[in-house]
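User: Can you model how zinc ion sits in this protein?
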Amino acid sequence: MKSLIREQVIRLYEWVYKPSLNEYNKNELSQSAIVFSPHFDDETLGCGGIMIKKKRAGADIKLVFMTDGSKSHSHLIPENELKTIRANEGIAAAQSMGIDAGDVFLLGFEETKLKEHHDSAVAKVRQIIQEQQPKEIFIPYHQEPLLWSEDHLCTTKIVKSALQSYGKNVVIYEYPIWFWLHWPWVDLINKNSSLTRIIVKHTLMYGLGSRLLRDFQCSMYIGDVLEQKHATLAEHKSQMTSLIPDSKWSTLNDVSNGKFLQCFFQEREVFRRYHHSVI
Ligand SMILES: [Zn+2]
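Assistant: Here's the modeled complex, given as structure tokens:
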């Protein structure tokens, strides 16, 4: 019954939402872009579909991973080993989308501690943007919830600070990740009571799901590359499978019984789109 209501509300939102969406202009698929990803996997989840389409259209895409991946399963595997595993997975995912390993930047700031390195991160990001001069920049949604770390919000703040001294116009696309962790996109009640509390809080914060309509008015149809997006995400093996059998290794599929993961495999990726203009 509860899930029936949830599905009906999703359908209602889709009915209201779809006609008001602005489709990403297909003529711009070949435009150059830099994708900034707080962690290894956010790039694939949030904008893997559009990245695949842009690479197929011949776009020059650079991928910047902000943190070192040392914390996701650090209770089960030494941090140094984890760093190497996750960096290799990030590069494999990039290659799966058609991005050369040489176009991947590993900034290597300690995961969960990006905030402490704000100034040096701004300097590095500024240099990358100045050198690459992209037409488009992809960053996490500026109102991602504070969940297990502030790295998503910090990534967005760092890129925006770096852009202040950038003398060229660029189009910004904000992509949602933990934003999706609210009803009706996932179940309100979960076996894990702390997850339920988080989801209730997010649901209120995002106006019972209505924030999607307000903030994410740009979309890209990715129904034709979903298989490739699944294959790319599978390259993040440590996030999708247990590297140590029979351990309490959590994967993305464990979050809200897989409903969180489903949010990234809808037939559209959605973005908050705006221009950064030279003043
Ligand atoms: Zn993340």
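A couple of observations from the model: Residues 38-39, 42, 152, 177 surround zinc ion (CB under 6 Å). Residues 79-96 form the longest helix (18 residues).
User: Helpful, thanks.
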